[in-house]
Amino acid sequence: MTQQISELPTPDDFPVVFNQVTKQFSETVFGLDHVDARFERGRTTVLLGLSGSGKSTMLRHINGLHRPTSGTVRVLGTDVGSASERELRDLRKQIGFIFQHFHLVGPMSVLENVCSGRLGSLRGPRFSLLTYPRAVKSTAMEQLERVGLADRAFQRADTLSGGQQQRVAIARALIQQPKILLADEPVASLDPVSSAQVLELITRIAREEHLTVICSLHQVQTAVEVADHIIGLQSGRKVLDRPGDNMTSEDALHVYDRVAAVSDDEEPAATGTASQTTPTVANA
Ligand SMILES: Nc1ncnc2c1ncn2[C@@H]1O[C@H](COP(=O)(O)OP(=O)(O)OP(=O)(O)O)[C@@H](O)[C@H]1O
């Protein structure tokens, strides 16, 4: 083997690779602008940036909801730009997604919500918990144990707290046995204690399962604490790309520098709220 070949990133080492990716939504609106990025297996990468900087656009390229205008996005070896709809469907089966608002079915039991993560691989509709195969229910219980909610399995999902609901959503994503876990502001609706629990859970599972986790956040201090790697975006351009080790929140706040420079007269955001879209240094 030549040295050159062994140095190429393989889908096994780097399941997600962006190469000069531009996403143009209109003549003047760029979601992403010539972005290069690699996401390593078993590690948690946090995307930072102001509202509108391109974090969700980046996540949506990874599960094939967007295709690049130019450049390439390779996910688990699939070129998202040229993949057929069927290839994208197969790809999505290997990608779990966690949302800010959990997206659980409130009146359904916690266990049934977790089982529903397997719907993509089962034939036909499921009308109740009884119609899921026993093996699926037992795997769902294992996942609930893992997120510390086995004792809530038969409770309605909408009777749980926000942090508990997000842990159910994580169990639902894990039952898919994904290789990649995408999380779009997964703690934006949670209090600081629940946020820390949810992020600790996600990063621990990433290491245990060798999952590639890509997570957008607005809380800078939290990002620095949990991330193995941080990518910062500003108006669709990548302005930061470095390991989280030894990184301070001041380092990470440079992601917002240019914006701060044009709004020097304005009061800086002091603390975070559930729905904020500006950066905060939580717990600082
Ligand atoms: N479907 C779309 N059509 C047109 N413009 C879009 C579309 N999706 C995103 N954009 C634009 O692309 C840019 C990046 O948006 P994106 O949603 O990726 O930002 P974000 O960093 O995820 O923001 P937030 O933190 O608020 O979720 C914004 O200017 C946005 O208005």
Element order, helices and strands?
HEEEHEEHEHHHEHEHEEHH
The poorly predicted ranges are: 261-277
Q: What is the helix fraction of residues, given as a range?
A: 25-40%
- Strand order in the largest sheet: 6-7-8-3-9-10
Q: What is the mean predicted local confidence, pLDDT?
A: 86
In angstroms, what separates the terminal alpha carbons?
50 Å
The number of E-state strands comes to 10
Radius of gyration: 19 Å
Ligand species: adenosine-5'-triphosphate
Percent in strands: 15-25%
Shape: globular
Oligomer: single chain
Major β-sheet annotation: 6 strands, mixed
- Specify the number of helices: 10
Category from helices, strands and their pairing? alpha/beta
Describe the structure concisely:
This protein is an alpha/beta fold and 284 residues long. Helices cover 31% and strands 21% of the residues.
Textual characterization of the structure:
With 284 residues, the protein is α/β, with parallel strands linked by helices. The chain is 31% helix and 21% strand. The protein is built from ten helices and ten strands. It has helices at residues 3-7, 55-62, 85-92, 110-115, 134-146, 162-174, 192-209, 220-226, 249-253, 257-262; strands at residues 16-24, 30-39, 44-48, 70-75, 78-79, 95-98, 180-184, 212-216, 229-234, 237-243. The strands form two sheets. Strands 6-7-8-3-9-10 form a six-stranded mixed sheet, with helices on both faces. The termini are far apart. Residues 25, 29, 31, 49, 51-57, 277 line the site of adenosine-5'-triphosphate (ATP). One of its GO terms (molecular function) is ATP binding. Residues 272-284 have a biased composition (Polar residues). Residues 16-260 form the ABC transporter domain. It comes from Brooklawnia cerclae.
